[in-house]
Amino acid sequence: MKLRAAIAGASGYAGGEVARLLAAHPNIEVATVTAASSAGRRLGEFHPHIGPLADRIIRETSVASLAGHDLIVLALPHGHSGALAARLEEAGEKALILDCAADHRLTDPAAWTAYYGSDFSPAWTYGMPELLHEGESRAAAQRALLSESTRIAVPGCNVTAVTLALQPAVHAGLVDPSRIVATLAVGYSGAGKSLKPHLLASEALGNMAPYAVGGTHRHIPEIIQNLAVCGADASATGITFTPVLVPASRGILATVVAPLAPGVGSDGVASAYDVYDDEALISLMPHGAWPTTAPVTGTGLARVSAVIDERAGSLVAIAAIDNLGKGTAAAAVQSANIALGLDEYAGIPMIGVAP
Ligand SMILES: NC(=O)C1=CN([C@@H]2O[C@H](COP(=O)(O)OP(=O)(O)OC[C@H]3O[C@@H](n4cnc5c(N)ncnc54)[C@H](OP(=O)(O)O)[C@@H]3O)[C@@H](O)[C@H]2O)C=CC1
Ligand SMILES: CC(=O)N[C@@H](CCC(=O)OP(=O)(O)O)C(=O)O
């Protein structure tokens, strides 16, 4: 018998992608889908690509509609998921709960207040199994934490791309984390499906638009938190983070540059990134090839490469992910699999579509 899942926010992009992955999961079935303004309508109106779930009627999101499942995935806007999670806790909910929003990602209340401004919710176990902890030779500690967890915070998509690109270098002490520069090309689905003028096709097509420039993006403290886990001094970590909307539906290409520590050469970089050798979802590009987003679209995969810029004295690390794949839904399913004692990669697409 399969485990039963409820997805809150199932009419949205993140909830829809979780539904798509769970619809093909060998051990989990989608039992309940909930949302807000779309309650009472068929899921197929919003996600016609998920045929097996098309006739599911979307229910109102409430403690009652989410009760009675083995796992609950919250894919709601920031703030809403934290408030709902608090009500689920009060009701004594025993199911595994995963939050795709930011509400339970940050451990530092001051960082939350500075970047989000709303009420702080306590941090849950961070849903990035590949997160390297200081001193370990392969990513085992985060997996151990996830295997014991019933509350999981799914990482931000941009955060995932930057972390996967740079963490081996920080972990191995190859770079100075005080002057990191991350520039990301990001697809529009990262902004969700709500109607906003700057997200219209007439604005987006043929345009490339930076946003949250100058240290204001809310993913900055989450990246610093991750790099601290792998060994950086958070108080001395500085990141200039600039996302740029490009005319694509899905995908994030993060180019991350950091000053090299003295004496670091190509061999040191290669051996630091070997830490990904056993990771099924992260592939290192062959020498001289760079990650691109198309091959990871629709999958839970990440592609990574790193190279030294000798003249500039810097490391250039690049990662490509699908924001809705490894950036959200695949991370949620992977983390849920670990917490539920299932095959870590069950239900995670590993083969892309082309062209
Ligand atoms: N898009 C992405 O690439 C990523 C998104 N995330 C996070 O996932 C969450 C969802 O994002 P995304 O799917 O993009 O957003 P969407 O705008 O596409 O979807 C939002 C969903 O939340 C529902 N919703 C809104 N308000 C409420 C409420 N008060 N109560 C219950 N349901 C509500 C909506 O229902 P209805 O349509 O019926 O009103 C809809 O199903 C966000 O926190 C986002 O930051 C995380 C990583 C990446
Ligand atoms: C294109 C776009 O707007 N992308 C979003 C990323 C959304 C995301 O990763 O999710 P969280 O909001 O859950 O952190 C952004 O940069 O804010």
Automatic annotation (TrEMBL):
Pathway: Amino-acid biosynthesis; L-arginine biosynthesis; N(2)-acetyl-L-ornithine from L-glutamate: step 3/4. It is found in: Cytoplasm. One of its GO terms (molecular function) is NAD binding. Keywords: Amino-acid biosynthesis, Arginine biosynthesis, Cytoplasm, NADP, Oxidoreductase. The keyword NADP applies. Residues 4-139 form the Semialdehyde dehydrogenase NAD-binding domain. It comes from the Bacteria. The keyword Oxidoreductase applies. InterPro entries: AGPR, AGPR_AS, AGPR_dimerisation_dom, AGPR_type-1, NAD(P)-bd_dom_sf, Semialdehyde_DH_NAD-bd. SMART domains: Semialdhyde_dh (SM00859). SUPFAM superfamilies: Glyceraldehyde-3-phosphate dehydrogenase-like, C-terminal domain, NAD(P)-binding Rossmann-fold domains. One of its GO terms (biological process) is L-arginine biosynthetic process. CDD domains: AGPR_1_actinobacAGPR_like, AGPR_1_C. It catalyses: N-acetyl-L-glutamate 5-semialdehyde + phosphate + NADP(+) = N-acetyl-L-glutamyl 5-phosphate + NADPH + H(+). Its main location: cytoplasm. The active site is at 157. GO terms for cellular component: cytoplasm. Catalyzes the NADPH-dependent reduction of N-acetyl-5-glutamyl phosphate to yield N-acetyl-L-glutamate 5-semialdehyde. This is N-acetyl-gamma-glutamyl-phosphate reductase. It comes from Schaalia hyovaginalis. The lineage of its organism: Bacteria, Bacillati, Actinomycetota, Actinomycetes, Actinomycetales. The gene is argC.
